[in-house]
Amino acid sequence: MRIDPDATLYEITENWPETVPVFTRQGFPQMAEEDLRRSFGSRISLRQALALKNLDLDGFVEQLEATIEPEATVAVGVAPTRVVGLLPCPVRIPLLEAFEPFIEDYQRSTGCKVEYELQAASMGAAWIDENLKHVSREEDLPELFISAGFETFFDPKGLGRFRDAFYDGLPYKTFNSSFDGVDLRDPEGRYSVISVVPAVFMVNMNELGDQPVPQSWEDLLDPRFEQRVSLPVGDFDLFSAILIEIHRRYGEDAVRRLGRSLATSMHPSQMIKLGRKSSAPIVTIMPYFFTRMAKEGGPMKAVWPSDGAIISPIFLLARKSAATQVQPIIDFFASKEIAEILAHKGLFPSTRPDVDNRLDSGSTFGWPGWEFIRQQDVASLIERCQQLFDEGRES
Q: Which residues on neighbouring strands pair with residue 199, listed in sequence order?
């Protein structure tokens, strides 16, 4: 069966009512109501609707046809589809609240069983290592893996050795305009990025005194900030991203200087509470989400780095060999509903093009880029950066 791209949305949903959830997941909420479905859907073709939202036509048609013909994805004795990963702590509960009914509907409509384990990101690298250390073949990989991180995904001794097994199944062609000038989409079509965790500054104006407010990452390397900066050392993904980007931009000595700047490595929520105390650092580097915790009128001032908030991407890794059964799950995580949970409830800007990330003008991002990553042994680079950082702390 092949859906006609020039058929109207109303024609498609009238012929196949089971396609309605596909439309609503992908940013067409009006298709859920019969009156709106008729009035809106009868005036626009599938091709026109997807062009307006910059969604991939072929990929969307595949989703619709998989829904119409679920028997094509079902086979006797097929192993369960495994979805594994770490979800950002601030949005884990709302994400699971959306995911669980979706999976129930998916299993009911397709006959495919899904097993999932989606832990809080605070579980960290140790949880990932424990779940993946026994993986020696592509067949042992989960069908879908979601998490932020660098080392986990690019380590040639870890998941990086399976990179040819993955495919980028995002249903939209271009990324949100928030990321203009940032090459977040994998040119090799293996890794999917659905969102990012940006690192920003919280400046304690009481501690800063009459000194200029630091505006950039380079400013933090100035000797005046030695032992006066709090860094997210415990957040392995974001801390690794910061180390790599500082090394790429400024070289090895800059990583040592960053180490010399370290005053403490408390959790961001603890640093916000220290804002009024004289022992507090001048600058706390933290995920953008935690800036919400700063008391209005208090001494803590949020600063988005002028040279870009360094980011830790939130990746989806999907196995090509399981594309038929995993694509609807990718579409769920790439849907407008999930993108808005990430961007609005978690302040994790989404790559989906039709979502308002609610960022101020000039809020740019920094990350090494795909060419840099492909040329590196990322795990070894992180190890080297950690060594340089420790040298700075001890000097």
A: 287, 310
At 111 the pLDDT is 83
Establish if 191 belongs to a structural domain: yes
Q: Are 206 and 159 contained in the same domain?
A: no
The pair phi, psi for residue 370, each rounded to 5°, is: -65, -40
Instruction: Assess whether pLDDT exceeds 50 at residue 174.
Output: yes
Angle between helix axes 378-394 and 236-250 (nearest 10 degrees) is: 80
According to DSSP H, which parts of the chain are helical?
9-15, 20-25, 34-41, 46-52, 57-68, 92-110, 124-132, 151-154, 205-208, 217-220, 236-250, 252-261, 268-273, 323-333, 336-340, 370-374, 378-394
Report the pLDDT value the prediction gives residue 71, as an integer from 0 to 100: 46
Residues 334 and 190 in one domain: yes
Judgement on whether residues 184 and 321 belong to the same structural domain of the protein: yes
| Model confidence pLDDT, tens digit, residues 108-134 | 888 889 999 898 887 766 666 666 667
